[in-house]
Amino acid sequence: MNLLLLEDDHILSETLQLFLTREGYTVDTALDMEEAEELTYKNNYDLYLFDINLPYGSGLELLKGLRHADDHTPTIFITALTDMHSMAQGFQLDAIDYIKKPFNPEELLIRLKAKFKNDILYYHDIEYDQQTQILRKNGEIIDLGNVQYKIFIMLLENSGRVVHKNELYECFEHASDTALRVAITKIKQRLNIEIKNIRGKGYIIETV
């Protein structure tokens, strides 16, 4: 998962980034609202971790602006503020959780794992719910068509591994190299992603 951490405390920010990176997360950090906002425009994230009380503004203000820009990235607030008004504002903006300072980084990790179980797969701005089998890009449901859907899900569930073309042929009623190439091309165009062709073997989606 790619996370954006907005925290103005340098030591806490560095500590959380190091801890979460060791747990396999990719973490960008911002020390103020302006820096965080710029990062949200440049990158796609699976989760925001926002402090509320900042020197110039608040995480609530930033999230409100992002929501108005149709950014529906799940958000957890990290804050010393726990008054009912702040909590109400956060949940009105679809925040998924709060964690109160001071806290043990292990507590944050537990919350992350509870909120983002393995039944949802993420790839850049794409998410796939393995329970509902719904595929979304930027929060909107995507319909790839039966064959392309099966191919992409197979590649996604095996990201980082070359999926042999014989495995991908199982997605077709009448398989051929040409049909597979055409389907892969359409998936790349529809989802705006990179799928690498490993000559003589198959295709791979690189892990992010």
What does it look like?
This protein is an alpha/beta fold. The chain folds into two domains: 2-115, Response regulator (Rossmann fold), CATH 3.40.50; 120-204, Winged helix-like DNA-binding domain superfamily/Winged helix DNA-binding domain (Arc Repressor Mutant, subunit A, Orthogonal Bundle). Helices cover 41% and strands 24% of the residues. It is built from eight helices and 14 strands. The protein has helices at 10-22, 33-42, 59-68, 84-92, 105-115, 146-157, 165-169, 177-191, and strands at residues 2-6, 26-30, 47-51, 53-54, 57-58, 75-79, 97-100, 120-123, 126-129, 134-137, 140-141, 163-164, 196-198, 202-204. The strands form four sheets. It has a five-stranded parallel β-sheet, with helices on both faces. A four-stranded antiparallel β-sheet has the order 8-9-10-11, with helices on one face. A three-stranded antiparallel β-sheet has the order 12-14-13. A hairpin with a 2-residue loop joins strand 10 (134-137) and strand 11. The chain is elongated and about 60 Å long. The mean pLDDT is 87.
Mind telling me the C-alpha Rg? Answer: 20 Å
State the assembly state of the protein chains.
Answer: single chain
What fold name stands as the CATH topology of the largest domain? Rossmann fold
Question: In the CATH hierarchy, what is the superfamily of the largest domain?
Answer: Response regulator
Which range does the strand content fall in? 15-25%
**Helical/strand content category:** alpha/beta
Write the layout of secondary structure elements.
Layout lengths: L1 E5 L3 H13 L3 E5 L2 H10 L4 E5 L1 E2 L2 E2 H10 L6 E5 L4 H9 L4 E4 L4 H11 L4 E4 L2 E4 L4 E4 L2 E2 L4 H12 L5 E2 H5 L7 H15 L4 E3 L3 E3 L4
Parallel strand pairs: 1-2, 1-3, 3-6, 6-7
Antiparallel strand pairs: 4-5, 8-9, 9-10, 10-11, 12-14, 13-14
